[in-house]
Amino acid sequence: MTDIENIKVGDRNALDLDRRSLSDEDSPASGSDFLLNFGRIYHGEDNGVSDKSMGVIDDSMVPRCATRSQKNADILFLDEMGENQSICVETSEGRWVLMQIVAADASRSDLGVGAVTFRVGYLKNPS
Fold it and tell me: Which pTM value belongs to this model?
């Protein structure tokens, strides 16, 4: 992976992985790749963000992220991910990114997940 860094995504924020910038859920910036809301990642045009590929992958399959990730519908539930799994994302600009959960904060109501910190890096050869 290249350009590895930790990015904290707040609850109700959209993230553009190419620009590594956050925007509010109510008006996601053009190019946003997903939206985080209460421990769920929303993806796809119906949610106002990119409709490129996104899925969960076992960490042992990371070198083949693009072809081995399990395509998810428009919602990915973070609490359903296994301990040794990551998220593989094709960005709105066509690059592949691997996201691993580093930390998850409790929501303001303490009923679920709020902000999530991801270890993010671009994959050199994702297929």
Answer: 0.84
Q: pLDDT of 64-89, one tens digit each?
A: 776 766 566 688 888 888 888 889 88
CB 68 within 8 A of CB 38: no
- Six-digit token pair at 36? 């985080």
Q: What is the dihedral of CA 121, 125, 126, 127, to 10 degrees?
A: 180
* Per-residue CA distances from 2 to 52, 63, 118, 119 (Å): 21, 13, 15, 11
**3 membership: H or E segment, kind and range:** strand 2-9
Separation between Cα atoms, residue 61 and residue 27, nearest integer Å: 35
What φ, ψ does residue 110 adopt, rounded to 5°? 65, 20
Show me where the domains of the chain are located.
2-122
pLDDT of residue 89: 87
- What 3-state DSSP class applies to 67? helix
